[in-house]
Specification:
The complex is a heterodimer of chains A (115) and B (116). With 115 residues, chain A is mostly beta strands. Chain A contains no helices and 11 strands. In chain A, the strands form 2 sheets. In chain A, strands 2, 4, 5, 6, 9, 10 and 11 form a 7-stranded mixed sheet that branches. In chain A, strands 1-3-8-7 form a 4-stranded antiparallel sheet, with no helix packed on it. Chain B is mainly β and 116 residues long. Classes of the chains: A mainly beta (115), B mainly beta (116). The A-B interface holds A 4, 31, 33, 35, 40-45, 48, 50, 58, 90, 92, 94, 96, 100-104, 106-109 and B 4, 6, 9, 32, 34, 36, 41-46, 49, 51-52, 90, 94, 101-109.
Chain lengths: 115, 116
């Protein structure tokens, strides 16, 4: 089983619908992140959480919200999806107490299409 | 604020040829530097990273990168390309301390194509 699991892997929805992407990890890491990948733009940080009580906005948080339900679970919500939120979404984890440099460990991605 | 620029969104090489993927960063102090690879329909995995010490860093699959502070660069190289190297490659930077430690900023990505 993957250390960082994202569900769903693929989702097609309509404009205005509420969508939740879920992420769970078995690595025991304290830090979790949500990134968005668009062609030619690389990965951009949406939200990040350094522990269960700590939630921070990234560079593109508008239109998104998150919930850190437990150390191992971090979900991303789109309250009212719009077509320009069509993208590939990645959850990632890191361990502040671990290897120097804060390496990220990624899930396999959730491809979201908003019609 | 930190930023990363990858020169060339697409790089094409022949099998057996040198691979060179360019990355330049902007940071007020030398950051931690990373290269990640993304194979089709997969997440990103770490190729190599520079934190401290030797500026020439060796990674997996025969890749290496050299941190050049004077040029603010961290270019990725591999002496001989293999078909299995075809993927998208991302350069990333992270602060070395402070409240943003561990928060990576990624470049735009470079798609590597390897021809037989």
């Amino acid at each position: 089983d993957a250390d960082v699991t994202q569900t769903p892997r693929n989702r097609i929805t309509k404009t205005g619908k509420r969508i939740m992407l879920e992420c769970s990890q078995t690595k025991g890491h304290d830090r979790m992140y949500w990134y968005r990948q668009d062609p030619g733009l690389g990965l951009r940080l949406i939200y990040y959480s350094f522990d269960v009580k700590d939630i921070n906005k990234g560079e593109i948080s508008d239109g998104y919200s998150v919930s850190r339900q437990a150390q191992a679970k971090f979900s991303l919500s789109l309250e009212s999806a719009i077509p320009n939120q069509t993208a590939l979404y990645f959850c990632a984890t890191s361990d502040f107490r671990g290897t120097l440099g804060g390496e990220l460990f990624f899930g396999e991605g959730s491809r979201l299409t908003v019609l | 604020a930190q930023s990363v620029t990858q020169l060339g969104s697409h790089v094409s090489v022949s099998e057996g040829a040198l691979v060179l993927l360019r990355c330049n960063y902007s940071s007020s102090v030398p950051p931690y530097l990373f290269w990640y690879v993304q194979y089709p329909n997969q997440g990103l995995q770490l190729l190599l990273k520079y934190t401290t010490g030797a500026t020439l860093v060796k990674g997996i699959n025969g890749f290496e990168a050299e941190f050049k502070k004077s040029e603010t660069s961290f270019h990725l190289t591999k002496p001989s390309a293999h078909m299995s190297d075809a993927a998208e490659y991302f350069c990333a930077v992270s602060p070395t301390g402070g409240t943003s430690y561990g928060k990576l900023t990624f470049g735009q990505g470079t798609i590597l194509t390897v021809h037989p």
